[in-house]
Specification:
12 helices
Length: about 450
């Protein structure tokens, strides 16, 4: 008994460990589980029958029926287990409405194949009537596709009618010949007995009519035989086409055909309509019973324990989430501090490097200026020496040509020139010094920037 009790508890979707602590709730959930189980069994039977009408193979129908029944069982179990008592009737109603709608839909799906099995005899009668009607309509439709048969039959009738007319004409001539020969007076005979002139004329007419009859019969019989053979060939083709469609008509007993026949029966018979309606209502009641039981039953100990268990689980989950968030925050804070230290070290290294580079550039600039200054001074000194030499040579030439007075004037002018050259040299040196002082300042400010 414990095995069946635990199994029914499992079918109801209840928490077994919590339900063991609530003995007063045991029977309620066992009943709910039994209802869910038998709903799955009914679904298996109905789907197996419905699939058998489609595939006509037992093991395929049984396999698909078990799959369908398991799905319905699992779905019902989920619907029932998801209903929880919350001491809020309107909230429970709002939760139950979609589940009730789904249960009603499942009831329709499960009940329909069983209805077909219950009314199978009546359904097969309607299907046989429809088969007969389809056979008649098929024959008429096929006959309309072969108008040549009627044309050939009409031609045969005309040929036979021509033969009968020739026979009637020959018989008429035979009667006239007999009346003329036996002397019976009539509108076509003379009334003189014996074989005379009129009798021989009648005999000639009889022979001509006989030959015409035989020629017409021979000619028409050949055509009639040809047309009859053609008609037989067309009949065979038409019959073969009908047999091909007859296979489809004989198979008109599938699932859709049976549902259509059940619809015809419910429209024609009120008794069948009411029986069909009550079967559907029965399955709706069975399918919705677990939901209604949980909806109208008062809140019990199991519901309290279940809510407490869910509350503890929610608190633990919230605690874990908080712990994870705290660990994440600490990790991010530590990572941020590490990043700041790395950036600070990089800035110190960069600042030292820039300072060293700036000092090196200033030192290089000073040495470059000193070398440039030394070269420029050497250039100026050499230029002054050349001017002095040139001025000495010019004074010697002037003293030889103009005398001492002229040499005194040139000496005065040379002194003036020397003084002016000295002034120019001092100005050039000042400009060089200014440029040398400005260049280190620019080189010093550029790396810092």
């Amino acid at each position: 008994m414990k095995f069946f009790r635990n199994f029914f508890w499992f079918c109801s979707g209840a928490h077994t460990q919590l339900l063991k602590r609530c003995p007063t709730e045991s029977n309620k959930y066992a009943g709910i589980g039994g209802t869910v189980l038998f709903t799955g069994v009914f679904a298996t039977i109905s789907s197996a029958y419905a699939l058998y009408t489609v595939f006509r193979v037992e093991w395929i129908a049984l396999a698909f029926g078990l799959v369908w029944g398991s799905m319905i069982f699992n779905l019902d179990r989920f619907i029932v287990s998801s209903m929880k008592k919350r001491n809020n009737f309107f909230r429970e109603i709002s939760m139950a409405i979609p589940r009730l709608m789904l249960a009603v839909l499942l009831a329709f799906v499960i009940s329909k194949p069983l209805e077909l099995k219950i009314f199978e005899r009546e359904i097969m009668r309607v299907i046989d009537e429809k088969r007969t009607q389809q056979i008649s309509q098929t024959k008429e439709a096929i006959a309309d596709n072969y108008p040549e048969i009627e044309e050939l039959q009409g031609q045969i009738a005309e040929l036979r009618q021509e033969i009968r007319e020739k026979e009637v004409f020959r018989n008429q001539k035979q009667e006239e010949y007999d009346l003329e020969r036996f002397g019976v007076a009539s509108a076509a005979t003379s009334g003189i007995p014996g074989i005379g002139r009129n009798a021989r004329i009648k005999e000639q007419q009889l022979n001509d009519a006989q030959r015409d009859l035989e020629a017409t019969r021979d000619r028409n019989l050949v055509q009639i035989e040809h047309f009859s053979q053609r008609i037989m060939d067309l009949y065979q083709v038409r019959e073969q086409e009908f047999e091909n469609q007859r296979v489809t008509i004989d198979r008109y007993d599938g699932f859709a055909a049976r549902i259509d026949a059940l619809g015809v029966l419910t429209r024609e018979s009120r008794a069948i309509y009411l029986a069909n309606l009550f079967i559907i209502l029965l399955f709706i009641a069975v399918e919705t019973a677990p939901i209604l039981v949980k909806l109208i039953s008062p809140r019990g100990p199991y519901d309290d324990l279940l809510e407490q268990h869910e509350h503890v689980f929610a608190k633990n989950k919230l605690r874990q989430i908080t712990k994870l968030e705290q660990e994440t925050y600490e990790s991010l804070h530590l990572l941020e501090e590490k990043s700041k230290n790395v950036i600070r070290k990089e800035l110190d290294v960069n600042r030292t490097t820039v300072r060293e580079m700036t000092d090196a550039e200033i030192e290089i600039a000073r040495k470059t200026i000193e070398q440039w200054k030394k070269l420029e001074l050497e250039k100026i000194s050499s230029a002054l020496e050349e001017k002095i030499e040139n001025s000495g040579k010019s004074e010697e030439k002037g003293s030889n040509e103009n005398g001492s007075e002229t040499s005194d004037k040139e000496a005065i002018s040379g002194n003036a020139a020397d003084s002016s050259n000295g002034n120019e040299r001092e100005e050039a040196s000042a400009e060089i010094t200014n440029e040398a002082e400005s260049e280190p300042i620019e080189s010093e400010t550029s790396p810092k920037t």
